[in-house]
Write a structure and sequence with these properties.
The chain folds into 2 domains: 146 residues, Tetratricopeptide repeat domain (Serine Threonine Protein Phosphatase 5, Tetratricopeptide repeat), CATH 1.25.40.10; 184 residues, Cathepsin B, Chain A, CATH 3.90.70.10. The protein is an alpha+beta fold. 47% of the residues lie in helices and 12% in strands.
């Protein structure tokens, strides 16, 4: 496996950071409209803040595995408890190029009895066939815009217990995993990319998960240790899509991890420990940085992001992972944004997210016209992207040039 080594970057100029209002604020037509939006929240009861006692239980969690294969908690399955569950797999649909996200989402919806296919989904969230990635927020946006009777949940630092509990509730789980592509797209390609799979079963006696891969087939098998290892580079994120009437079951299955803030703090503890135990592992450093950014510590996050980058991340990494890019933007590091995005855009000019970040780098430098051109180019690639819409609204509302 050939991987390109990144020399530590030299000092770069830091520009005045931009002010980024929440999307709800930016798109509100007036302060009165904003007040209504903030008050009318039909899911407010599902977003309640955990009580202090719930927060205190974070201390009960211990993460014992230095090889990153397991995250062991004080709860979950007991060693004597055997779990075997296999959900009925949806009809298999082979993914087209760059379309595993749409194909896996289609499979998940078909599991719930919804007639969908990857091309209908892609037309909405992935209209350019050469755009290399669909993100988990893209999938969530698609569900909220088109299926009001379904809910979605994305959480971090998933464990075998989380996955088994959700499967026992009859809920399949979408995971991003690292995959070694058989195809070379450029000289010295390291072949490592992010791929979505749909978990459909688990057998604890053989420590085997069953899953669908939209490129390889239905009801495939993978050992628990291999799954956890290939899942680790992406903070072990997982996405579940389920009918509203199953929300109580999801809460019970995930326990503390149902709450975003508790899940974030537990994941931060896990990945902090990993970064200390494995200082030369780029994924351990990146995952810790991503959680620091989510916890609003941008300076600490940037230090760990730089360590990960210098240790060498896969060449396609920033097609799917944007935490480092977003941190650079929020800190005003325009030169770093250009360094991280421009080489990938030279290999594939059809990525609207990287195009946007390159545009933001120009905005930071005060090159507004060049930045806006890149925003408009991103809109041509994917006019339906919420991230693109935000950038264009920001241009109209916040910039004077």
């Amino acid at each position: 496996m050939t991987r390109m080594y990144h020399e530590p970057a030299s000092a770069k100029k830091a520009y005045e950071p931009l002010e980024f209002p929440d999307a709800q604020v930016l798109f509100a037509e007036s302060l009165e409209n904003l007040s209504v939006l903030q008050q009318e929240d039909p899911l407010a009861d599902l977003r309640q803040t955990p009580t202090p006692s719930e927060y205190s239980r974070v201390a009960e969690w211990q993460y014992l595995d230095p090889n990153l294969n397991y995250a062991v908690s004080s709860g979950g399955l007991s060693p004597e408890e055997t779990v075997t569950v296999q959900l009925i797999p949806p009809v298999f649909e082979h993914a087209d190029l760059y379309n595993d996200g749409a194909a896996i989402l289609s499979a998940d919806l078909r599991y719930w009895g919804v007639i969908e296919n990857q091309y209908h989904i892609a037309q909405r969230i992935h209209p350019n066939r050469n755009d290399p990635f669909i993100s988990l927020p893209d999938i969530q946006d698609y569900i909220s815009d088109n299926y009001e009777n379904f809910m979605t949940l994305v959480r971090l630092n998933g464990t075998k217990d989380n996955l088994a509990a959700l499967l026992q509730c009859g809920i399949p789980v979408i995971l991003p995993v690292q995959y070694h592509s058989p195809f070379s797209f450029w000289l010295h390609d390291d072949h490592l990319e992010c791929r979505y799979i749909l978990l459909l079963g688990y057998d604890s006696s053989s420590t085997t998960f069953f899953y669908q891969d939209s490129f390889r087939g239905n009801t495939l098998q993978i050992q628990e240790s291999e799954l956890l290892s290939s899942w680790y580079p992406y903070q072990r994120k997982y996405l579940v899509i389920y009918p509203e009437d199953k929300d109580t079951e999801v809460r019970e299955a995930l326990s503390e991890d149902y709450f975003d803030e508790l899940n974030t703090q537990k994941a931060l503890t896990k990945f902090r420990n990993d970064s200390e135990m494995l200082p030369n592992d780029p994924y351990a450093q990146y995952n810790y940085a991503a959680l620091l950014h989510k916890d609003n510590d941008n300076n600490g996050a940037w230090d760990s992001f730089k360590k990960a980058y210098e240790l060498t991340l896969p060449q396609r990494f920033f097609y799917s992972q944007t935490d480092m890019l977003q941190t650079a933007l929020e800190l005003g590091y325009a030169d770093d944004l250009t360094e991280l995005t421009a080489p990938l855009l030279n290999r594939n000019k059809n990525d609207e997210i990287l195009t946007l970040y390159l545009g933001w780098a120009e905005i930071l430098r005060g090159n507004y016209k060049e930045g806006v051109k890149l925003f408009e180019k991103a809109e041509k690639i994917n006019p339906n992207s919420q991230t693109v819409r935000y950038a264009l609204k920001y241009k109209d509302t916040m910039l004077n040039y």
